[in-house]
């Protein structure tokens, strides 16, 4: 009887122990340790090639500000890219005769001239001013002149009035020819004479000398001017520069 009681007691202890283990599995399972996280090896970023220095911007020698010889008269050229092309030849041919300046931009059309003429004239006293507008005015945009003829005439009157107040001797350069062919931007050869005729009337009214570059170019247009282009070869600009220099010398009373 006593032995049976002991067995019952042991059996009860075993049951209690089993129940406790079932409630807390951690008592029987070994603790799980999370593996340490390893960072992927760092790969050095490829070194960027050093940026190449930008090539220096090429400066058009016509657009360089010149230093005056105080003993020489001052000349100002006003005009578009055609005048830009003959600026350096004129300077070379008038070396020792005059300080030849130009507006440091493309003068473009007469609307632009009216807007900027005061600024262009502000740089001191001028002895001679040689000027032109026309090729940009007669340029065709959607079939119409960029500046129509009546407005061109009004603008020229305004510009001439400003130029006369400087007291300089004025020389008007007639607009150079437009060649035949498909031009970009479009222009019509016949329009040049239309605009030149209107300009001549104004210059005659104001007794302004005319440097007739149109008449000078026409007989040798194919030799001097690029085909289907209003611009000129180097030889063309040299020739134009000679004519412009001659007209300036005449205005200065030089031979």
How does the helix and strand content classify structurally?
A: alpha/beta
Runs with pLDDT <50, length 5+? Answer: 1-5, 9-33
The overall pLDDT average reads 87
Tell me the radius of gyration: 43 Å
Q: Number of DSSP helices?
A: 8
Shape: globular
Strand order, sheet with most strands? 2-1-3-6-7
**Ends apart, CA distance between termini:** 157 Å
| Proportion of strand residues | 5-15%
Number of strands: 7
Order of helices and strands: HEHEHEEEHEHEHHH
What helical percentage do the residues reach? 40-55%
Largest sheet: number of strands, sense, barrel closure: 5 strands, parallel
Q: Would you give an account of this structure?
A:
The protein is α/β, with parallel strands linked by helices and 255 residues long. It is built from eight helices and seven strands; from the N terminus they run H-E-H-E-H-E-E-E-H-E-H-E-H-H-H. The protein has helices spanning 2-23, 81-93, 110-121, 149-164, 189-205, 213-217, 221-224, 234-252; strands at 74-78, 99-102, 128-131, 140-141, 144-145, 169-173, 209-211. The chain has a five-stranded parallel beta sheet, with helices on both faces. A two-stranded antiparallel sheet has the order 4-5. Helix 2 (81-93) crosses helix 8 (234-252), helix 3 runs parallel beside helix 4 (149-164) and helix 4 runs parallel beside helix 5.
């Amino acid at each position: 009887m006593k032995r049976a009681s002991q067995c019952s007691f042991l059996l009860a202890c075993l049951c209690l122990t089993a129940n406790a283990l079932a409630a807390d599995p951690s008592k029987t399972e070994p603790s799980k340790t999370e593996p340490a996280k390893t960072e992927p090896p760092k790969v050095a970023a490829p070194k960027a090639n050093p940026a190449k220095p930008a090539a220096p911007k090429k400066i058009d020698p016509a657009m360089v500000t010149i230093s005056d010889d105080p003993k020489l008269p001052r000349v100002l050229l006003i005009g578009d890219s055609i005048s830009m092309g003959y600026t350096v030849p004129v300077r070379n041919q008038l070396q020792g005769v005059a300080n030849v300046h130009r507006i440091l931009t493309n003068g473009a059309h007469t609307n632009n001239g009216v807007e900027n003429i005061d600024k262009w004239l502000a740089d001191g006293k001028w002895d001679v001013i040689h000027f032109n507008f026309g090729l940009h005015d007669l340029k065709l945009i959607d079939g119409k002149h960029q500046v129509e003829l009546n407005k061109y005439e009004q603008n020229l009157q305004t510009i001439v009035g400003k130029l006369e107040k400087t007291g300089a001797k004025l020389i008007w350069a007639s607009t150079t020819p437009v060649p035949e062919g498909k031009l970009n931007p479009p222009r019509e050869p016949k329009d040049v004479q239309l605009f030149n005729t209107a300009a001549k009337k104004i210059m005659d009214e104001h007794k302004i000398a005319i440097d007739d570059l149109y008449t000078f170019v026409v007989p040798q247009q194919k030799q001097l001017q690029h085909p289907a282009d209003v611009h000129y070869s180097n030889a063309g600009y040299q020739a134009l520069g000679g004519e412009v220099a001659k007209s300036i010398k005449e205005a200065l009373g030089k031979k």
